[in-house]
Amino acid sequence: MATLVAEFPLVQPHLCDSQIPPVVYLSGVLMFVAGLAVVRAHNLWSRNWTVLVTMTGWFLLVLGLVRMFAASQYHQVAAGTRSTVFMLLEGVLLLVALIITYQGYRREPKQHA
After folding, report:
1. Measured at the alpha carbon of residue 48, what is the angle toward residues 43 and 54, in degrees to the nearest 5?
2. Inter-axis angle of helices 51-69 and 83-105, nearest 10
3. Considering Cα of 18, then 65, then 62, then 73, what sign does the dihedral take?
């Protein structure tokens, strides 16, 4: 959630404008490693909220690969994209992050035996 909020266009409106391909590549490596760690530790496809964790891991893995192997093209596309698109995407990702965080830290009701 901290990364999403830090990258939110209202917080740093020109963050994507100044990214150079090496920075895009580096962030892709970090996303790939994080996604790989999540997928290796939590590759569960069940019909509850935990599937969001698995989907987030796969999303990070694929986006990391795209940013690593197409850093220049990714930079060009990101520079030409309107900030409202980024705000919408970041908002959806923030909502998913809030759901995962809430579900991960909430207390389960104690069951009486």
Report:
1. 25
2. 140
3. positive
The pTM is what?
A: 0.79
Sign of CA dihedral 26, 100, 102, 7: positive
Q: Which of 110, 106, 25 is nearest to 71 (CA)?
A: 25
Is the CB of residue 99 less than 8 Å from the CB of residue 52?
yes
The full length of the chain comes to 113
Tokens of 43: 């590759």
What's the pLDDT at 112? Answer: 66
Token pair 């809430």 is at which residue?
A: 102
Give the relative orientation of helices 71-80 and 51-69 as an angle to the nearest 10 degrees: 110
